[in-house]
Specification:
Blueprint: E1 2-7, H1 13-20, E2 24-30, E3 34-36, E4 41-43, H2 46-53, E5 58-60, H3 66-74, E6 79-83, E7 101-105, H4 117-123, E8 129-135, E9 145-151, H5 159-183, H6 214-224, E10 230-234, E11 237-246, E12 258-260, E13 265-267, E14 274-281, E15 287-288, H7 289-294
Parallel strand pairs: 1-2, 1-6, 2-5, 6-7
Antiparallel strand pairs: 3-4, 7-8, 8-9, 10-11, 11-14, 12-13, 13-14, 14-15
Helix pairs in contact: 1-5, 4-6
Length: 306
Protein backbone atom coordinates (compact mmCIF):
# COMPACT_ATOMS: atom_id res chain seq x y z
CA UNK A 1 0.00 0.00 0.00
CA UNK A 2 0.94 3.64 -0.42
CA UNK A 3 1.25 4.94 3.13
CA UNK A 4 1.82 8.29 4.78
CA UNK A 5 3.27 7.91 8.26
CA UNK A 6 3.01 10.50 11.03
CA UNK A 7 4.98 10.26 14.26
CA UNK A 8 7.59 12.05 16.32
CA UNK A 9 9.17 10.30 19.36
CA UNK A 10 11.31 7.19 19.62
CA UNK A 11 8.23 5.09 20.43
CA UNK A 12 7.02 5.63 16.84
CA UNK A 13 10.26 4.50 15.18
CA UNK A 14 9.75 0.70 15.39
CA UNK A 15 6.44 1.00 13.53
CA UNK A 16 7.97 3.21 10.86
CA UNK A 17 10.84 0.80 10.34
CA UNK A 18 8.53 -2.23 10.20
CA UNK A 19 6.14 -0.68 7.70
CA UNK A 20 9.01 0.55 5.52
CA UNK A 21 9.99 -3.08 4.89
CA UNK A 22 6.48 -3.98 3.73
CA UNK A 23 4.92 -0.98 1.99
CA UNK A 24 5.65 2.15 0.00
CA UNK A 25 5.85 5.10 2.37
CA UNK A 26 5.27 8.22 0.30
CA UNK A 27 6.02 10.65 3.14
CA UNK A 28 6.87 10.78 6.83
CA UNK A 29 5.25 13.61 8.76
CA UNK A 30 6.91 14.68 12.01
CA UNK A 31 7.26 17.67 14.28
CA UNK A 32 9.94 20.28 13.43
CA UNK A 33 13.46 20.06 14.81
CA UNK A 34 13.51 21.06 18.48
CA UNK A 35 16.23 22.64 20.68
CA UNK A 36 17.67 20.02 23.02
CA UNK A 37 20.28 19.98 25.78
CA UNK A 38 21.87 22.81 27.67
CA UNK A 39 23.13 24.37 24.45
CA UNK A 40 19.65 24.14 22.89
CA UNK A 41 20.93 22.59 19.68
CA UNK A 42 18.23 22.12 17.03
CA UNK A 43 17.79 18.36 16.74
CA UNK A 44 15.60 16.31 14.37
CA UNK A 45 12.94 14.14 15.99
CA UNK A 46 13.72 10.41 16.34
CA UNK A 47 11.21 9.73 13.55
CA UNK A 48 12.85 12.30 11.27
CA UNK A 49 16.25 10.72 11.89
CA UNK A 50 14.92 7.23 11.15
CA UNK A 51 13.14 8.42 8.00
CA UNK A 52 16.29 10.03 6.68
CA UNK A 53 18.24 6.82 7.36
CA UNK A 54 15.60 4.93 5.38
CA UNK A 55 15.74 7.45 2.52
CA UNK A 56 12.12 8.52 2.99
CA UNK A 57 10.82 12.03 2.26
CA UNK A 58 10.08 14.02 5.41
CA UNK A 59 7.43 16.69 5.97
CA UNK A 60 8.16 18.73 9.10
CA UNK A 61 5.01 20.31 10.47
CA UNK A 62 4.17 21.71 13.90
CA UNK A 63 0.53 21.06 13.06
CA UNK A 64 -1.32 19.49 10.19
CA UNK A 65 -2.50 22.75 8.65
CA UNK A 66 -3.56 23.58 5.12
CA UNK A 67 0.02 23.56 3.84
CA UNK A 68 0.83 20.13 5.32
CA UNK A 69 -2.52 18.82 4.12
CA UNK A 70 -1.85 19.97 0.57
CA UNK A 71 1.56 18.27 0.56
CA UNK A 72 0.08 15.00 1.79
CA UNK A 73 -2.94 15.05 -0.52
CA UNK A 74 -0.68 15.61 -3.53
CA UNK A 75 1.03 12.29 -2.78
CA UNK A 76 -2.27 10.35 -3.04
CA UNK A 77 -1.72 7.95 -0.10
CA UNK A 78 -4.07 4.99 0.28
CA UNK A 79 -3.73 4.90 4.09
CA UNK A 80 -2.41 7.13 6.83
CA UNK A 81 -0.70 5.63 9.88
CA UNK A 82 -0.12 7.75 12.98
CA UNK A 83 1.90 6.91 16.10
CA UNK A 84 2.38 9.64 18.70
CA UNK A 85 2.74 12.47 16.19
CA UNK A 86 1.81 15.12 18.74
CA UNK A 87 -0.98 16.88 16.80
CA UNK A 88 -4.53 16.31 15.64
CA UNK A 89 -5.60 15.10 12.20
CA UNK A 90 -8.69 17.03 11.17
CA UNK A 91 -10.78 17.23 8.03
CA UNK A 92 -10.10 17.43 5.16
CA UNK A 93 -6.87 15.54 5.88
CA UNK A 94 -8.68 12.91 7.94
CA UNK A 95 -10.51 11.70 4.83
CA UNK A 96 -7.73 12.34 2.33
CA UNK A 97 -6.23 8.81 2.18
CA UNK A 98 -8.47 6.29 0.37
CA UNK A 99 -9.21 4.36 3.58
CA UNK A 100 -8.50 7.11 6.11
CA UNK A 101 -6.06 6.88 8.99
CA UNK A 102 -5.25 4.29 11.63
CA UNK A 103 -3.62 5.04 14.98
CA UNK A 104 -1.40 2.88 17.17
CA UNK A 105 -2.22 3.79 20.77
CA UNK A 106 -0.38 2.37 23.77
CA UNK A 107 -3.35 1.30 25.86
CA UNK A 108 -6.21 -1.18 25.83
CA UNK A 109 -8.90 1.18 24.59
CA UNK A 110 -11.13 2.71 25.79
CA UNK A 111 -8.78 2.82 28.80
CA UNK A 112 -6.41 5.78 28.88
CA UNK A 113 -7.39 7.87 25.91
CA UNK A 114 -5.00 10.79 25.59
CA UNK A 115 -1.37 11.86 25.46
CA UNK A 116 0.11 9.79 28.33
CA UNK A 117 -1.54 6.35 28.36
CA UNK A 118 1.44 4.35 29.60
CA UNK A 119 2.31 6.83 32.33
CA UNK A 120 -1.26 7.12 33.58
CA UNK A 121 -1.75 3.35 33.55
CA UNK A 122 1.37 2.83 35.66
CA UNK A 123 0.41 5.57 38.12
CA UNK A 124 -3.00 3.95 38.51
CA UNK A 125 -1.32 0.62 39.31
CA UNK A 126 -2.67 -1.23 36.26
CA UNK A 127 -1.30 -4.76 36.18
CA UNK A 128 -2.03 -5.23 32.47
CA UNK A 129 -0.76 -2.99 29.66
CA UNK A 130 -1.26 -3.23 25.95
CA UNK A 131 -1.70 -1.56 22.58
CA UNK A 132 -4.61 -0.89 20.24
CA UNK A 133 -4.83 -0.04 16.54
CA UNK A 134 -7.98 1.89 15.71
CA UNK A 135 -9.62 3.94 12.97
CA UNK A 136 -8.88 7.61 13.52
CA UNK A 137 -11.99 9.76 14.00
CA UNK A 138 -12.46 13.40 15.07
CA UNK A 139 -13.16 12.44 18.70
CA UNK A 140 -10.02 11.75 20.76
CA UNK A 141 -8.95 8.07 20.55
CA UNK A 142 -12.58 6.98 20.11
CA UNK A 143 -12.56 5.14 16.78
CA UNK A 144 -13.44 1.50 16.14
CA UNK A 145 -10.64 -0.92 17.01
CA UNK A 146 -9.04 -3.21 14.42
CA UNK A 147 -6.79 -5.08 16.84
CA UNK A 148 -5.81 -5.02 20.50
CA UNK A 149 -3.11 -6.93 22.34
CA UNK A 150 -2.02 -7.22 25.94
CA UNK A 151 1.76 -7.01 26.21
CA UNK A 152 3.99 -8.35 28.98
CA UNK A 153 5.99 -5.60 30.65
CA UNK A 154 8.54 -6.12 33.43
CA UNK A 155 6.81 -5.72 36.84
CA UNK A 156 9.06 -2.86 37.96
CA UNK A 157 9.44 -1.19 34.55
CA UNK A 158 9.38 2.59 34.49
CA UNK A 159 7.36 4.45 31.86
CA UNK A 160 10.21 4.69 29.35
CA UNK A 161 11.06 0.99 29.72
CA UNK A 162 7.42 -0.05 29.39
CA UNK A 163 6.95 2.18 26.36
CA UNK A 164 9.98 0.65 24.64
CA UNK A 165 8.45 -2.82 25.01
CA UNK A 166 5.02 -1.64 23.89
CA UNK A 167 6.51 0.14 20.87
CA UNK A 168 8.21 -3.02 19.62
CA UNK A 169 5.12 -5.22 19.99
CA UNK A 170 2.87 -2.43 18.73
CA UNK A 171 4.88 -2.18 15.52
CA UNK A 172 4.07 -5.78 14.64
CA UNK A 173 0.42 -5.30 15.61
CA UNK A 174 0.19 -2.29 13.29
CA UNK A 175 1.85 -4.20 10.46
CA UNK A 176 -0.75 -6.95 10.84
CA UNK A 177 -3.60 -4.45 10.67
CA UNK A 178 -2.18 -2.72 7.59
CA UNK A 179 -1.85 -6.12 5.89
CA UNK A 180 -5.49 -6.93 6.66
CA UNK A 181 -6.62 -3.55 5.31
CA UNK A 182 -4.60 -4.17 2.15
CA UNK A 183 -6.17 -7.58 1.51
CA UNK A 184 -9.68 -6.49 2.47
CA UNK A 185 -10.06 -8.72 5.53
CA UNK A 186 -9.85 -5.97 8.18
CA UNK A 187 -12.80 -5.60 10.55
CA UNK A 188 -13.04 -2.92 13.21
CA UNK A 189 -15.27 -3.14 16.28
CA UNK A 190 -16.62 -0.32 18.47
CA UNK A 191 -14.81 0.23 21.75
CA UNK A 192 -16.43 -1.44 24.74
CA UNK A 193 -16.56 -0.04 28.27
CA UNK A 194 -16.22 3.26 30.06
CA UNK A 195 -13.34 5.45 28.83
CA UNK A 196 -10.63 6.75 31.13
CA UNK A 197 -8.48 9.73 30.22
CA UNK A 198 -4.69 10.13 30.11
CA UNK A 199 -3.82 13.84 29.91
CA UNK A 200 -0.21 14.92 29.50
CA UNK A 201 1.76 14.87 32.74
CA UNK A 202 2.87 18.04 34.50
CA UNK A 203 5.68 18.59 37.00
CA UNK A 204 3.14 18.35 39.83
CA UNK A 205 2.32 14.77 38.82
CA UNK A 206 5.83 13.78 39.92
CA UNK A 207 5.50 15.09 43.49
CA UNK A 208 5.49 12.15 45.92
CA UNK A 209 2.96 12.16 48.76
CA UNK A 210 4.52 10.24 51.64
CA UNK A 211 1.14 9.72 53.30
CA UNK A 212 0.38 7.16 50.59
CA UNK A 213 1.34 3.48 50.73
CA UNK A 214 4.62 2.28 49.26
CA UNK A 215 2.73 0.53 46.46
CA UNK A 216 1.01 3.78 45.49
CA UNK A 217 4.27 5.71 45.66
CA UNK A 218 6.21 3.15 43.64
CA UNK A 219 3.43 3.12 41.02
CA UNK A 220 3.69 6.89 40.71
CA UNK A 221 7.50 6.71 40.57
CA UNK A 222 7.26 4.23 37.68
CA UNK A 223 4.73 6.34 35.83
CA UNK A 224 6.62 9.64 36.01
CA UNK A 225 10.11 8.26 35.33
CA UNK A 226 11.99 9.63 33.47
CA UNK A 227 9.63 12.55 32.72
CA UNK A 228 8.52 14.74 34.42
CA UNK A 229 10.43 12.91 37.15
CA UNK A 230 9.57 11.79 40.68
CA UNK A 231 10.55 14.33 43.30
CA UNK A 232 10.11 15.50 46.86
CA UNK A 233 11.18 18.52 48.87
CA UNK A 234 13.61 18.50 51.79
CA UNK A 235 14.19 21.69 53.74
CA UNK A 236 12.45 23.52 50.91
CA UNK A 237 14.81 22.13 48.25
CA UNK A 238 13.63 19.89 45.43
CA UNK A 239 15.18 16.42 45.29
CA UNK A 240 14.59 14.33 42.17
CA UNK A 241 14.37 10.58 42.75
CA UNK A 242 15.94 8.62 39.90
CA UNK A 243 15.99 5.04 41.19
CA UNK A 244 13.66 3.51 43.77
CA UNK A 245 12.06 0.24 44.86
CA UNK A 246 9.62 -1.00 47.44
CA UNK A 247 11.32 -2.12 50.69
CA UNK A 248 8.64 -4.49 51.97
CA UNK A 249 11.02 -6.29 54.36
CA UNK A 250 12.29 -3.14 56.08
CA UNK A 251 10.93 -1.79 59.36
CA UNK A 252 8.22 0.82 58.90
CA UNK A 253 8.98 4.54 59.30
CA UNK A 254 6.75 7.52 59.88
CA UNK A 255 5.60 9.02 56.56
CA UNK A 256 8.35 11.22 55.14
CA UNK A 257 10.97 10.25 57.74
CA UNK A 258 14.30 9.25 56.18
CA UNK A 259 16.66 6.53 57.36
CA UNK A 260 19.97 5.48 55.84
CA UNK A 261 21.32 2.00 55.13
CA UNK A 262 24.62 1.07 53.52
CA UNK A 263 23.12 0.99 50.01
CA UNK A 264 19.95 3.10 50.07
CA UNK A 265 17.84 5.73 51.78
CA UNK A 266 14.56 4.53 53.24
CA UNK A 267 11.65 6.98 53.06
CA UNK A 268 8.73 6.37 55.37
CA UNK A 269 5.29 5.87 53.84
CA UNK A 270 1.86 4.76 55.07
CA UNK A 271 3.09 1.15 54.81
CA UNK A 272 6.60 -0.18 54.10
CA UNK A 273 9.42 2.25 53.23
CA UNK A 274 10.43 3.28 49.72
CA UNK A 275 14.10 2.47 49.10
CA UNK A 276 15.83 5.21 47.09
CA UNK A 277 19.25 4.50 45.59
CA UNK A 278 19.89 7.39 43.19
CA UNK A 279 18.89 11.07 43.36
CA UNK A 280 19.51 14.42 41.74
CA UNK A 281 19.56 17.51 43.97
CA UNK A 282 18.44 20.83 42.51
CA UNK A 283 21.16 22.37 40.34
CA UNK A 284 23.44 19.31 40.56
CA UNK A 285 24.08 16.09 38.73
CA UNK A 286 22.79 12.63 39.51
CA UNK A 287 24.44 10.84 42.42
CA UNK A 288 24.11 7.96 44.83
CA UNK A 289 21.36 8.63 47.37
CA UNK A 290 23.69 7.54 50.17
CA UNK A 291 26.42 9.92 48.98
CA UNK A 292 23.91 12.77 48.90
CA UNK A 293 22.83 11.87 52.45
CA UNK A 294 26.40 11.92 53.71
CA UNK A 295 26.74 15.45 52.36
CA UNK A 296 23.90 16.80 54.50
CA UNK A 297 25.01 18.79 57.54
CA UNK A 298 22.27 17.56 59.88
CA UNK A 299 20.28 14.43 59.09
CA UNK A 300 18.72 13.94 62.50
CA UNK A 301 14.94 13.73 62.01
CA UNK A 302 15.20 14.92 58.40
CA UNK A 303 11.90 14.50 56.58
CA UNK A 304 10.81 14.49 52.97
CA UNK A 305 8.02 16.83 52.03
CA UNK A 306 9.32 19.61 54.28
Amino acid sequence: MRLVFAGTPAAAVPTLRRLATLHEIVAVVTRPDAPLGRKRVLTPSPVAQAAEELGLPVIRAARLDADATAQIVALAPELGVIVAYGGLVREPLLSAPDVGWINLHFSLLPAWRGAAPVQRALIAGDSVLGASVFQLVPELDAGDVFAMRTIDVAPAATADQALETLAQDGAELTAEVVASIADGSARAEPQQGEPTLAPKLTLDDGLLDWSQTVDELFARFRGVTPEPGAHTTIDGQRLKILEAASAQDADSLEPGLISSTRSALLFGTASAPLAVTRVQPAGKGAMSAVDWWRGQRDTEGLRAGS
